[in-house]
Write a structure and sequence with these properties.
The protein is mainly beta. The protein has one helix and four strands. It has a domain of about 30 residues. A hairpin with a 2-residue loop joins strand 3 and strand 4. Bound molecules: zinc ion (2 copies). One zinc ion (ZN) binds next to helix 1.
């Protein structure tokens, strides 16, 4: 088996500071996001409530 090293990376959402596990992250266009809202750029307003991103899950 290959190495199972897990490194956390930061969500690619510009206003998000969440750290995501690449194995569980939502991948869109080669970038990793912590949630669907971030992956979609919060076009629907989901996850973007207050200052910053607002996704706390
Ligand atoms: Zn995020
Ligand atoms: Zn976000």
């Amino acid at each position: 088996m290959a190495s199972t090293t897990v490194k956390s990376i930061q969500c690619s959402c510009s206003s998000c500071v969440c750290v995501v596990d690449p194995n569980n992250a939502i991948v869109k266009e080669g970038k990793y996001y912590c949630c669907q809202g971030c992956a979609e750029g919060h076009v629907n307003g989901n996850g973007s409530g207050n200052s910053g991103c607002g996704c706390n899950s």
